[in-house]
Design goal:
single chain, 259 residues, alpha/beta, seven-stranded parallel sheet, 7 strands, 47% helix, globular
Length: 259
Amino acid sequence: MDLGLTGKRALVCASSKGLGRGCAEALAAEGVDLVLNARGAAALEATAAEIRAAHGVAVVTVAADITSEAGRSAVLEAAGAVDILVTNAGGPPPGMWSDWSREDFIKALDANMLTPIALMQAVLPGMIARGWGRVVNITSGSVKAPIPVLGLSNSARAGLTGFVAGTARQVAGKGVIINNLLPGIHDTDRASALDSGVAKSEGISMAEARTKREATIPARRYGTAAEFGAACAFLCSQHAGFIVGQNLLLDGGAINATL
């Protein structure tokens, strides 16, 4: 299937590894030139070199903290006019409701709600003027089924979901399509960190913690960054123009819900 993306330009945040890299790889395979962002310069440059070699697309890198105002400014200046925006940022730390202060919530909102909103506000006018654009926000399955120990993430990502629900319907008529991808457990550093916490608290090995979590997923495995990226590329494609303001779960069936 031709996704109709050859020659497009995409900004993919937090893309040196994990789900962000999976999205970048899938877009590059479709002929999309990339602007990649991550905090770690070494990993970012290594990823960029591998993508250039594998797919022959142009790749610009910006090592910066996308959740800071200075970082966003640097990334947006380097990105210029983009056709595709993929927002992504690491989730806040786990804990319990009694652990978090107002400052903890502010940090979570900055990273997982206000940063993607600011990025959308920056790129949407250009997309509207050109009559075409795609935005995919990487959020979390927790907006469908809250995870008690991820209350900071639940709160911030639910706020972003509400913003997207209204905004997507305001810009769709201009050819600009916004959707959210909701990952469950994927084989990334984030999953390893969560498994490590379970292993430590329950006195079991990392392998045992992973096996225990896999048993809760109907697919009986963790997702891969490659299949996540493929879903992202489709939502960015010429075929996704009638998919507006949706929240697509990629969780192996872990959330048991009819809708």
